[in-house]
Write a structure and sequence with these properties.
It is a single chain. The protein is an alpha+beta fold. The protein has four domains: 75 residues, 2-Layer Sandwich (Phosphorylase Kinase, domain 1); 157 residues, Transferase(Phosphotransferase), domain 1 (Orthogonal Bundle); 106 residues; 77 residues, no CATH class. The protein is built from nine helices and 18 strands. Strands 1-2-3-4-6-5 form a six-stranded antiparallel β-sheet, covered by helices on one side. A three-stranded antiparallel β-sheet has the order 7-9-10. The protein has a three-stranded antiparallel β-sheet with strand order 14-15-18, with no helix packed on it. The longest helix is centred in the middle third of the chain and has 44 residues. The relative contact order is 0.06.
């Protein structure tokens, strides 16, 4: 039967059908006298009227108020405030999963609404938390729109009258009515399933999502938030949060920690950049020492070790940053179970690695000669008895005896000119003398004769 344009009670004209469920059918209607829009729910006259009793008691800021009740034939029509907005289910269908921060805000608002029901005398259990029963108006305010499953809890437990597949707690779905029960932890389960749906974009009433944890099926969700949701939906009620207030405290704690997370993530990101710059500086210092003289070998090793340590520190900071940025806004909300996180600050390290690998061959090429090796020093010092003195290059030799300088032509390249600089200082007077000795190896003349090596020297008093 087409309900459109039908007039109820002589004053409410039905404009469209909004939905239909086990609790009844919902319409949008226009008041013929006031020109105002209303939401109308049609239920059977045989219904016990629990929804009417609950709606007459609850705060009008949480759910639509009942303005009128019209009875026609076997039906009773509940005329309620019209909410101009969309349900969370419609948003999921059009836009996909909610951003983490917005989902947590919805979860906290839902906890506040359910807590107000639990605080009534007697307490009222909502027992039907799901995206289709939650609406947001144009201002973003959350509303509960269906109390067809709500019951009053007169003792420790209440007997539920219905259960939504995928969202109802296990104790609500027991076939035997004598064993079926519900308490405040059943609403905790419903809130957890709702968060599961709006965070992951998955309908828990459809397999395999109902059997999957958010940790496994929603890799883009922060692990701490996923653990909160997974605790809500555990099979055994005693393993869940025992009150909705405890769940709200956990969600509020998560939002506070994510605020601090942003600050620490900023510090870690800055650390990645600073350590990357330090690695670059150390690497330039190391490569600038190639070829490495014997005296500076330990200094070069120190710079190489510093390069490796700073690079390791940058990599560790990058890993921590990537882990922390998987919080609000740190993932790509792809419409797929196979979602991936963004890798934070990975490209600076990649750029640094490319630089190091590009610089190494060029510096190594400069370090190698045509023979492919670094030659030892051709200068040997001997004492008055012509014994070899073991003196490191660049060090100071204190002696009161004659010192002889020996050159070995076999130790340096052919046709290479050698320049030796020696500085002497008087131990008592402090006067310094500088000597420069130039050595030119033998050359072959045009007629095949060989000229002997030539020496030239100069001394300067400083």
């Amino acid at each position: 039967m087409d309900e459109k344009r039908r007039v109820i009670g002589g004053k409410y004209e039905i404009e469209c059908v909004l939905g239909k469920g086990g609790g009844g059918q919902v319409f949008r209607a226009r008041d013929l006298r006031l020109g105002k829009q209303w939401g109308i729910k049609r239920v059977s006259r045989d219904c016990q009227g629990m929804e009417e009793r609950v709606l007459s008691k609850v705060d009008g800021r949480l759910c639509p108020r009942i303005a009128d009740v019209v009875e026609e034939g076997k039906w009773r029509y509940l005329v309620m405030d019209w909410i101009d907005g969309e349900s969370l289910e419609e948003h999921l269908r059009k836009e996909g999963p909610f951003e983490v921060r917005e989902a947590v805000r919805i979860g906290i608002s839902l906890c506040d609404a359910i807590l107000s029901l639990h605080g009534m005398q007697p307490p009222v259990l909502y027992l039907d938390c799901k995206p289709s029963n939650l609406m947001r108006d144009r201002e973003g305010k959350l509303w509960l729109i269906d109390f067809g499953s709500a019951v009053e809890q007169n003792g420790q437990q209440a007997v539920p009258i219905s259960a939504s597949p995928g969202y109802a707690a296990p104790e609500q779905r027991i076939r035997d009515a004598r064993l079926r029960c519900a308490d405040v932890r059943s609403d905790v389960f419903g809130i957890g399933r709702t968060l599961y749906a709006i965070l992951g974009g998955m309908d828990p009433s459809r397999p395999p999502y109902g059997a999957c944890s958010l940790t496994d099926c929603g890799p883009g969700v922060p692990k701490e938030l996923a653990r909160i949701v997974d605790r809500c939906v555990r099979e055994r009620p005693e393993e869940r949060y025992q009150t909705v207030g405890a769940l709200k405290a956990a969600l509020c704690g998560f939002t506070q920690r994510t605020g601090r997370q942003k600050f620490f993530s900023f510090l870690l990101s800055a650390g990645v950049w600073c350590l990357s710059a330090l690695t670059l500086w150390q690497g330039i210092g190391f490569y600038g020492m190639v070829p490495i003289p014997g005296l500076l070998r330990w200094e070069a090793l120190r710079k190489l070790g510093g390069t490796l340590l700073s690079a390791a520190g940058a990599l560790i900071c990058q890993k921590w940053t990537a882990g922390r940025q998987s919080g609000p806004g740190g993932y790509e909300p792809l419409q797929n179970v196979l979602r991936t996180e963004k890798k934070a600050e990975r490209w600076p390290l990649l750029l640094l690695t490319l630089f190091l690998f590009a610089a190494l061959p060029s510096r190594a090429a400069d370090a190698l000669d045509s023979g492919g090796e670094t030659l030892p020093s051709p200068v040997v010092l001997r004492d008055a008895r012509m014994r070899k003195l073991l003196v490191k290059e660049g060090s100071v030799l204190c002696t009161g005896e004659k010192v002889y300088l020996e050159l070995s032509p076999d130790a340096f390249r052919q046709q290479e000119e050698l320049e030796i600089c020696v500085t002497a200082a008087g131990q008592e007077s402090g006067r310094q003398y500088g000597y420069t000795l130039r050595y030119c190896p033998q050359k072959e003349g045009g007629d095949g004769d060989k000229f002997p090596a030539s020496f030239s020297g100069a001394g300067v008093l400083y």
